[in-house]
Write a structure and sequence with these properties.
- It is a single chain.
- The protein is built from 13 helices and 12 strands.
- It is of the alpha+beta class and 369 residues long.
- The chain has 4 domains: 97 residues, Alpha-Beta Plaits; 66 residues, MutS, DNA mismatch repair protein, domain I; 56 residues, 5' to 3' exonuclease, C-terminal subdomain (DNA polymerase, domain 1, Orthogonal Bundle), CATH 1.10.150.20; 97 residues, 2-Layer Sandwich (Dna Ligase, domain 1).
- The strands form 3 sheets. It has a 5-stranded mixed beta sheet with strand order 5-6-1-7-8. The protein has a 4-stranded antiparallel beta sheet with strand order 9-12-10-11, covered by helices on one side.
- Helix 6 links the parallel strand 7 and strand 8.
- Helix 12 packs antiparallel against helix 13.
- The N terminus and C terminus are likely disordered.
Amino acid sequence: MDQATENEPLIRKIIHIDMDAFYASVEQRDNPEYRGKPIVVGGSPEGRGGVVATASYEARVFGIRSAMPSRTAAQLCPQALFIRPRFDAYKEASGRIRSIFYRYTDLVEPLSLDEAYLDVTEDKLQIGSAIAVARQIKQAIREELQLTASAGVSVNKFVAKIASDMNKPDGLTFIGPSAIAAFMEKLPVEKFFGVGKVTAAKMKRMGLHTGADLKKLGENELVQHFGKTGRFYYRIVRGIDNRPVQPHREIKSLSAEDTFPQDLQKPEDMRQELQRLAAVVAERLKRNNLQGRTVTLKIRFGDFRQITRNRSFPHAVSDPETICETAAQLLDSIQPEDKKIRLLGISLSNFGDGIPHRQPGDGKQMRLF
C-alpha cells in the first residue's frame, strides 16, 4: 500500500456519485402524473409518526427535507403528494446504476442505494481523466435510466463528497489538488464530516465559523475541545483524507439519533421521538436490504451522562413497530420519569456474517483529471 505523510498526501482519482432526489425521481419517471409536482416519498400528511424518505425538488423549495416528520412536511407544503415507498423499484434502479459504475472500475464503495464512491485512478477503459469518466457515467445514467446524478471529483473521498453536493441537481464539480486548501478554508464548519448541529453550535460559540477559523487551532487544542475527533478535524481541514475506497464495505450497524434543543422530561415526548427514530432506522434497513437481531438504545441525560441498553432477538427484525417498542421497553427499564434526556438514539446490529473488506489497489500519482 502507498505510504503518505501530511506533507505528501496520497493522491487518488476519486468520484462521488449522488443520485438526485433518488426515490422521488424514480416515482416521477415511472408516473408521468407526478412530474413537475411536489411529491414526498414516505410518511403521510396526517403525521402518525412517519418521516420523509426523500422529496422531489419541487417539494424541497418549500423547505421539505429527508428525515423530517411528515406532519411538518405537510404543514410546509399542504399540496404535496405523499407516496408510499416502492423499495423494489429503487433497488432495481440502484443495481443498474452500479452496473454502470463497474464498467469503469471495480473499486466501488456503495454508501446506500443512491450514492457511492469510485476510485478511477486506474479506470478499466483507460480514459485517464476522472472528469471524463464522471461525465460518461452521468450520461449513461440519464440515457439508460432516465435519471440524473450529481458527481464530485477530487483526490480524496471527503472533498469529492462535498463537491457532489455543490451544484445539484445534475451537477459535476471538480476540486483539484491546488484548489483544496482555499476550498476547505471557505467551507462552513457544519459542512465538515462528523460535525452535527450540536458540535457546529459549539464551534460557532468559540468563534469557529469556517475551515479557516478551524485551521488556526493546533491539533492538541482541537483534541482538548472535541476529543479524539479533533485529530480528524485537524487533518481534514488541511484536505488530508487517505481513506481508501472499500469495495464490499461491510455494514455493522444502522442507527439514528437526535440531540434535542430542550431536554425531554415527559414520557409521551420521549415515546414520540422513539417512534420517529425507529421509522428512520427502519427506512435505512430497507434501503440496504438488511435485518438485525440486536436493538440498542442510546441515552444522554441532561447532565451529559450517557448510557446504552440493548436487547437481542432470536430472529432478525426490521419493522419500525418492533424497533420502537423494544426501544421504549429499554427506556422504561431505566425509569426516566424523573430524569432529563438530552439525546436519544436507536441502532440495529447483529446482521449476521458480513462480506469481508477487500483492499483496493495502490493509488498512483495523478497526472490528469
